[in-house]
Design goal:
The chain is mainly α and 463 residues long. It is built from 20 helices and 6 strands. It starts with 13 loop residues before the first helix and ends with a helix.
Length: 463
């Protein structure tokens, strides 16, 4: 039976019921709906809006419904209009008129707004836990490979030497910001809408502060129209998920490149790759590719939410039923992507020799050569730049690198070169001398990894 049946003289067309129903996707909020209802029933009893005895019966039976749903003893009716209707009707079936008192001073509008907040609060906690696990892996790997020289790139061309640990910690910083974005979104979502009714509150003497406290909120919504009709917190969480997916996608793009035969910087464990149905030699990084691909899905969820909300007048409109599928899909997809990525990174094999060879063959110490002419030999930078460019051209023509180019070849280009050039352009020295804050020197990388690990530990202890 529909909760709104009294106004209507005929049954809705079955197709209308199907189109209007949200049970298929809001059933995930069953536990949160019961949690909110228990808090509401408790408050009604304490305020004398309903009898204390009826309040207790409601809370006890709601607890039993929660247990029955969790155990599978009670199945959600797929024909119910929504999860709120299903639970209220189940409660009424068990308690009769007492069950009908639960909705006193409440609308489905503030009820839904509450349930989404409670659900997303738990989802964000799960996402934060996964992000911390991924960050811990990155920190561990960064320390392990803090001295592993590899080429850094700009425009996908070898540019200057860095270390693999330094490269990994770049993603560590991105993910640390992602973590803080979810934390900030949860703080702004920490507002209880229950008691705002359909749009204009209620004449019942509700104690909204009590309800908020029972549900773990630190604030109550200050405007009833805003509380039931905005979903900026959904959009904000979808944005945080989208930006996190950008970072995961970029990381996965590099994993795909690095495990190709053209790079061979890493090898992914067999558990996180697949093969080809026709080419027996193939080992495809399908999981990394799927994560990269699923980023577009999360972006679409965000755009869908923004589009749903952009033209809605106050207060609640049925368009807002579409919010749940979008934001739930965004958080579910991010969770799904983080699940295999964490062990995939943890188990990958790093080919340090290939990284080193690529760094040596890419003339990425050319800037150090120019700096040598400036700092040691007193050349103006532009002249040093030109001479170094001529050296690179000579190496390419004759099959040398700057590290193994004979001294006489150096001196053909510029007589000022002497044996000290080889120390100046050493890849290890080039990386090791970049001790400026944020640079790739091994001690910097280790300090950065330990800093992030300490931040994660401190936050865990605070919780």
């Amino acid at each position: 039976m529909k909760l709104w049946k009294g106004r209507f003289k005929k049954e809705a067309d079955p197709k209308t019921n199907d189109f209007n129903s949200s049970i298929a996707f809001d059933s995930r909020m069953a536990q949160q709906d019961i949690e909110g209802s228990i808090a509401h029933a408790t408050m009604l009893g304490r305020q004398g809006i309903i009898a204390e005895g009826e309040s207790m019966k409601l809370c006890v039976e709601l607890g039993k419904i929660r247990e029955d749903l969790a155990s599978g003893l009670l199945a959600i009716d797929p024909d119910a209009e929504d999860i709120h209707t299903f639970i209220e009707q189940e409660l009424t079936a068990r308690l009769g008129n007492t069950g009908k008192r639960l909705h006193t001073g409440r609308s489905r509008n503030d009820q839904v707004a509450l349930d989404i907040r409670l659900t997303l609060r738990e989802d964000c906690a799960s996402l934060k836990a996964q992000l911390k696990e991924l960050l811990a892996v990155l920190c561990k790997k960064a320390e392990q490979y803090s001295e592993t020289v590899m080429p850094g790139y700009t425009h996908m061309q070898r540019a200057q030497p860095v270390t693999f640990g330094h490269h990994l910690m770049a993603y560590g910083e991105m993910l640390l910001r992602d973590l803080s974005r979810f934390e900030d979104a949860v703080k702004r979502m920490d507002v209880c809408p229950l008691g705002c009714g359909a749009l204009a509150g209620t004449t019942y003497p509700l104690d909204r502060e009590l309800t908020a406290k029972l549900l773990g909120f630190t604030q109550v919504a200050q405007n009833s129209l805003d509380a039931v009709s905005d979903r900026d917190f959904c959009a904000e969480i979808a944005f945080a998920a989208s930006l996190c997916m950008v970072h995961l996608s970029r990381l996965c793009e590099e994993l795909v490149l690095w495990c190709s035969w053209e790079f061979r910087f890493i090898e992914l464990d067999d558990a996180y790759c697949t093969g080809s149905s026709i080419m027996p030699q193939k080992k495809n990084p399908d999981l990394a590719e799927l994560i990269r691909g699923k980023s577009g899905r999360v972006f679409g969820d965000l755009m869908g939410l923004l589009t749903i909300m952009k033209g809605l007048p106050l207060a609640y409109n049925k368009d807002m039923q579409e919010d749940k599928e979008a934001v739930f899909d965004a958080v579910d997809t991010l969770k799904l992507c983080l699940t295999p990525l964490i062990p995939m990174l943890d188990t990958m094999k790093v080919r340090e020799d290939n990284m080193r060879a690529a760094a040596a063959g890419g003339f990425i110490n050319a800037t150090d050569c120019a700096d040598y002419l400036v700092a040691v030999k007193g050349f103006p930078f532009r002249e040093a730049y030109k001479l170094t460019g001529e050296l690179v051209a000579l190496c390419i023509e004759q099959g040398f690198t700057l590290e193994n180019l004979p001294l006489e070849k150096y001196q053909q280009v510029c007589p000022a070169f002497d044996e000290t050039i080889y120390q100046a352009i050493s890849l290890d020295r080039s990386v090791g001398d970049r001790r400026v804050i944020g640079g790739p020197a091994p001690e910097n990388v280790k300090a950065q990894a330990r800093r992030v690990a300490a931040l994660l530990k401190d936050e865990g202890e605070e919780k």
